[in-house]
Write a structure and sequence with these properties.
54 strands, single chain, alpha+beta
Length: 942
């Protein structure tokens, strides 16, 4: 018996030691900051109590809820629905001394977990995402209050039973305004940006709903309710006081905290803006005195982020601690005599921040660059400020940096195979070259044919007599961000210098806000003085759907395109949303789609606030493959990651997501790159990958990963077009309409951030994605499914110059192409006599996609983006990329060989050789945040 006890004790000690070692290995102390590696990208952090003991609750990118001890132990995980969580709230709702965890999920569900992570109950009314959740106490009872994009507020019992629904139309004062006003509900309705309790001096709680109707331009209104009452007793429009000396624009709010700042027993409301980092504001509302006060956050570089706020004790003084970008600001509350602000600059920005009221620790979520740590700031430790300045996250950030370094080291030893075909040229249009990289740029420019670095940088706009513009709207239009101060001669003098000792110049020639920044004759003169050097005329957001745009195209754009054809110039159309699978199929754009200016127009995208990245890629590549254009382009900027403007998390300081997206797009043939510099030393590996030929840039007839099945767009459905254009308004949800109108492509407006796509949506069955969120690196498991102009039948465009689609692609597609036709709503027969419902007909297309994939040489499955191109008669280049855009991880690709039998399979950078004998598939591991280039050699010509 004693021997048995000794054995048991031994195993207990071993287990204890192993657990302790695990905690230590996942926890790093920086003397003031403890970092815990969770292995997950943590987007939200809260704290909870269990019998008075505090612990951390995290919510991951994938929607997993996890509990973490301060020692670094992962106490439990619950994956819930697998979709993102918009809000998390912790409170004891059943009076057992243990906080429950309440979660508002993008699939429309409120989840309630106990302190061990077990699901207690869930509540769902419809599919509209739930966006806000809280718990409020009245007497001995606790009610859960939730709201989302269906424009209602729900009171639930502590057991998850519906107590009451309050429709926002009964109390909201938000009014819609827009050029698309006819498409927006007329009645005053709002969605719940935040729902929170506020404690009064007598200990009672009131409910505050921050209602809004727009992710981008509306700060909203604070609605104050007594618990369970139908109407608010107070409404406070969030707006700046008129007596302020400096004009303040209050953007949408991304942070809502409460604290008693003046020790009167009443909590104040602290609001952090969600906006452009040059326009960050912290607003404080004193409920007891009905007064707003403001703090403007300055010295933040360009980016999109939230001002997260907590209140701490700093050297025995009450201070705001505001995190925005990669900085922390410390300043005193309103009415304090201390006007000093302390600024702490760190390396990385973070997804979220909260304060633990039980310990006074400040908790940071993971780094926005794909980090996996939770960081605990001990504000009682005098070293915490220095620790924050020096904070270098471990976990996935360290992996990404190391993996990129390995790619760079292997690239240094790489020599392009002599048999490899010549890549297409790549134009780096807006690269900012710091001094330490000038040598590398010059080396590339002098020794390699591609990439080609263009000069860039906008100048002031032309001040000219616009009376010749016959359109009233555009004659009066100006872009408020620009200065209109230069004469034509001044402009020509300034731009002439831009070409000196350069290979070309790229600049804004106009914008949707004002296409006529320069008169047509001035731009023609600019092209003349370029003297044959490459010029790229950038036109962002040129996507009006009205007759006004038709005038601009006929008066300005098409004449300019005609003139550009002999001037080595391109018009870079940087559109938004679903433009390249919708607006471009409207009549005004027919000359572009005909191929008349194929050598001039370059379709590109601004993906800000979009939820359709996988669609825009299929649309641009489809137009290129059709021959309507001969090149396509892409853009990498901080706001790419901002799919939800109310929670803008777009301040990544490690641009690994940029790098992988650009590798993917370039491997698919993108030639015009509009990049925004963040860390050019890190990004410079992209230049070298192109220069040395490891990243092969194919012609359209060299790509072999395009599905033989393509979907062609006839005249786009009106609702589809406007749904895809209204990404900022939040109040579109109509339950009856959604149930009765299945769309081929849907849930694209501002109502659906992070929401699941429908079973019959193109994004699911073709692109292989499950949600409306940042699908820049969609897997397309059956090959890239192009969205194209109709090729045959009554919907095909007449009198086109371009060739047929199958004649532009690789010869293997000659006899295997199959076309389906849609308007974004339904499917149609080529002769126009039959209409098919999206929720029924998709099954036929999905089966065709699976069957047709077997006709491709290679297909790939797994959480990866992939491309296959032919680099020589007997060699294929397979590019494999970690597809977690801002959620990178180690990935596994299953590569299947369908119509070929390789005789050699080799990673061209690290030299790994894969087994080829008697195998139809191989597994390839892709390190976190990385990509691989695999050479597949064939025994005979393909």
């Amino acid at each position: 018996m004693k021997k048995l006890k000794a054995v048991i004790l031994f195993f207990v000690l071993i287990t204890f030691y192993n657990c302790k070692s695990f905690a230590q290995s996942n926890s790093t102390n920086h003397k003031g900051i403890t970092s815990i590696d969770t292995g997950l990208t943590i987007h939200k952090v809260r704290t909870a109590l269990n019998k008075g003991k505090s612990y951390i609750i995290g919510s991951s990118f994938e929607g997993t809820i996890l509990a973490v001890s301060y020692k670094g132990d992962i106490l439990w995980k619950n994956k819930l629905s697998g979709f993102m969580n918009h809000d998390v709230w912790c409170r004891d709702i059943n009076n057992d001394g243990k906080d429950e965890i309440l979660v508002a999920n993008a699939n429309g569900t409120i989840y309630c977990l106990d302190s061990k992570g077990n699901l207690l109950w869930n509540f769902k009314k419809n599919d509209a995402p739930m966006y806000a959740v809280t718990a409020i106490k009245k007497g001995n009872d606790v009610n859960i209050v939730a709201g989302g994009f269906d424009k209602s507020i729900y009171y639930l019992s502590s057991k998850g039973e519906l107590v009451k629904e309050i429709k926002s139309s009964t109390f909201s004062i938000e009014k819609p305004w827009s050029k698309f006003k006819t498409e927006i509900p007329d009645s005053n309705v709002s969605t719940s940006n935040f729902i929170r309790p506020v404690k009064k001096a007598d200990g009672t709680e009131i409910l505050v709903v921050l209602g809004t109707n727009n992710h981008m331009n509306v700060a909203g209104t604070l609605y104050f309710f007594h618990t369970l009452e139908d109407l608010p007793f107070k409404k406070v429009k969030i707006q700046a006081n008129k007596d302020l000396k400096k004009k303040i624009r209050i953007r949408p709010l991304g942070d809502f905290k409460t604290a008693d700042l003046n020790n009167d027993g009443n909590q104040e409301i602290i609001l952090g803006s969600s906006s452009h980092a040059n326009d960050i504001l912290v607003s404080t509302y004193d409920f007891a005195n009905d007064k707003f006060s403001y703090n403007r956050i300055t010295k933040v570089k360009f980016g999109y982020d939230i001002a997260h706020n907590v209140i701490i004790n700093d050297n025995n003084k009450t201070k705001y601690l505001t995190r925005v970008g990669s900085q922390i600001y410390l300043f005193s509350p309103p009415n304090s005599n201390d006007k000093n602000t302390e600024r702490l600059l760190s390396k990385y920005a973070y997804n979220d921040m909260c304060k633990d009221p039980a310990t006074n620790n400040v908790i940071l979520a993971s780094s926005q660059s794909g980090g996996s740590c939770i960081h605990i700031i001990d504000t009682d430790n005098k070293n915490w400020k220095n620790a924050f300045k020096k904070l270098q996250p471990t976990g996935k950030i360290a992996q990404i940096i190391e993996n990129t370094k390995n790619i760079k080291n292997n690239l240094d030893k790489f020599n392009k195979p002599s048999i490899q075909s010549k890549s297409q040229p790549v134009y780096l249009m807006t690269e900012k070259i710091p001094g330490n990289l000038e040598g590398l740029k010059n080396d590339i420019s002098n020794n390699y044919q591609t990439p080609i670095f263009l000069n860039s940088g906008n100048i002031d706009k032309e001040k000219w007599n616009r009376s010749s513009i016959k359109n009233d709207k555009y004659r009066e239009k100006r872009d408020g961000r620009m200065k209109y101060s230069l004469t034509q001669n001044q402009i020509l003098d300034k731009i002439k210098s831009k070409y000196e000792n350069q290979k070309g110049y790229a600049y804004w020639a106009g914008h949707g806000n004002d296409p006529y920044m320069y008169q047509l004759e001035t731009t023609k003169k600019i092209l003349d003085l370029a003297d044959g050097k490459k010029t790229v005329l950038i036109y962002p957001e040129l996507e009006d759907h009205s007759k006004d745009l038709e005038y601009v195209l006929d008066d300005l754009i098409y004449p300019l395109a005609k003139y550009s054809q002999s001037k080595n110039a391109n018009i870079f159309l940087r559109s938004k949303n679903i433009f390249w699978l919708g607006s471009n199929y409207l009549k005004p754009w027919s000359r572009l789609m005909s191929g008349e200016f194929a050598d001039v127009f370059v379709p590109s995208m601004e993906e800000t606030t979009d939820k359709s990245m996988e669609l825009s890629l299929a649309g641009r590549m489809g137009i290129w493959a059709s021959g309507a254009v001969n090149s396509w382009g892409t853009r990498a900027v901080p706001d790419n990651a901002s799919f939800d403007r109310s929670r803008q998390i777009g301040y990544q300081r490690l641009p690994n997501h940029f790098l992988r997206m650009l590798v993917f797009h370039t491997a698919n043939g993108a030639q015009f790159i509009n990049n925004f510099s963040i860390d050019q030393e890190y990004m410079s590996v992209y230049w070298e990958l192109i220069a040395k030929g490891a990243l092969y840039v194919p012609k359209r007839n060299e790509i072999l990963s395009i599905s033989p099945v393509h979907v062609s767009m006839k005249d786009p459905d009106h609702h589809f077009l406007n749904d895809g254009s209204n990404v900022k308004w939040t109040t579109f949800y109509d339950e009856a309409f959604e149930k009765n109108n299945p769309f081929v492509m849907s849930r694209l407006n501002g109502t659906w951030p992070g929401a699941p796509v429908t079973l019959w949506d193109f994004s699911r069955y073709a692109a292989g994605v499950k949600e409306r969120r940042l699908n820049f690196l969609a897997p397309y498991p059956n090959g890239m499914v192009l969205i194209t102009p109709p090729q045959k039948g009554v919907f095909a465009q007449k009198n086109v110059i371009r060739k047929r689609l199958k004649d532009n692609l690789h010869p293997i597609y000659k006899n295997i192409m199959k076309e389906y036709i849609t308007d974004g709503h339904n499917y149609y027969s080529a002769d126009g006599t039959q209409t098919f419902r999206a929720d029924e007909y998709y099954q036929k297309i999905e089966k065709d996609l699976r069957d047709s994939a077997k006709k491709l040489p290679i297909t790939v499955s797994g959480d990866v983006a992939w491309v296959v191109v032919q680099t020589s008669p007997t060699h294929l280049r397979l590019t494999l990329i970690d597809n977690g855009y801002i959620n990178p991880n180690n990935r596994k690709a299953i590569v299947t060989f369908n119509t070929i039998t390789p005789i050699s399979i080799k990673d061209i950078l690290d030299g790994t050789i894969f087994k080829t004998s008697n195998t139809k598939s191989i597994e390839v591991n892709i390190p976190c945040g990385a990509f691989r280039f695999i050479d597949v050699e064939l025994s005979e010509k393909l």
